[in-house]
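Incident log, support desk, overnight shift.

02:14 A customer reports that sequence design results differ from what the structure should imply. Their input is reproduced verbatim below. On-call engineer (initials T.W.) acknowledged and began investigating.
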């Protein structure tokens, strides 16, 4: 064969269409299942906001269950086989998927509130978008141009979506406390959720929660130190900043300074 003769892969273009999509799904079952669970998370969220699929409360809890399934599948991908050891538990707690598996379990028996499912829906939209593009490419280059446009918009807004999710994670903490006083959540809910926030603050792969905490601190300090801020409000805000700073993981504070 001469050097100028094209290879067999170049002569035969990669197959496209429904059969190629089926083959792709069979070869990438976990990735396809992750995509499906994320899409279901979005669909159930729509069903909670617009009760067109029956009982909105059922749709709300299905959002949390779909998110739990997504987190469990992602952990299956990233973690080695289970070992009953301290090292394995430490590695498990470092995974963002573990954080959101815990998140679903925290609120699975709490009163439905839209803000609670807001971050998991944002993550589902964001992470399902890129794989949706892979599936569309498998179908064919010109398939579903409208969906491709929506995916491009989601990917363009990735940073803003992650920041919104981080804001939601933070403001759910006072919401959890309010739900306890209203009798809509258990006494352990805010305590366990605080541990979730600590894990999110210390996340290696997603610094947005930590960054948003820092941004909120700067805004609050600027407002507290303003000339027009009443002394009583200034004192309350400064005390709140001190309390939150003491509750923050000291290890991550050191990393932020590096």
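02:41 Re-run completed on a clean worker. Output:
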């Amino acid at each position: 064969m001469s050097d100028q003769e094209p290879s067999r892969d170049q002569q035969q273009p990669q197959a496209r269409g429904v059969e190629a999509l089926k083959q792709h799904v069979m070869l990438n079952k976990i990735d396809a299942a992750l995509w499906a669970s994320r899409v279901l998370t979005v669909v159930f969220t729509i069903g909670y906001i617009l009760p067109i699929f029956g009982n909105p409360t059922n749709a709300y809890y299905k959002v949390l269950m779909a998110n739990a399934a997504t987190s469990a599948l992602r952990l299956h991908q990233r973690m080695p086989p289970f070992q009953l050891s301290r090292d394995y538990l430490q590695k498990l707690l470092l995974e963002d998927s573990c954080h959101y598996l815990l998140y679903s379990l925290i609120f699975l028996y709490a009163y439905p509130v839209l803000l609670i499912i807001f971050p998991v829906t944002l993550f589902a939209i964001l992470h399902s978008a890129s794989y949706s593009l892979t599936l569309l490419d498998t179908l064919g280059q010109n398939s579903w141009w409208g969906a491709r446009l929506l995916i491009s918009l989601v990917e363009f807004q990735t940073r803003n979506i992650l920041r919104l999710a981080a804001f939601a994670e933070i403001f759910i903490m006072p919401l959890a406390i309010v739900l306890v006083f209203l009798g809509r959540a258990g006494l352990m809910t805010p305590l366990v959720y605080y541990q979730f926030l600590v894990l999110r603050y210390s996340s290696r792969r997603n610094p947005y929660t930590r960054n948003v905490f820092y941004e909120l601190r700067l805004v609050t300090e600027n407002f507290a130190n303003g000339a027009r801020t009443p002394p009583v409000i200034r004192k309350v805000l400064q005390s709140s900043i001190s309390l939150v700073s003491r509750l923050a993981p000291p290890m991550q504070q050191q990393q932020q300074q590096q």
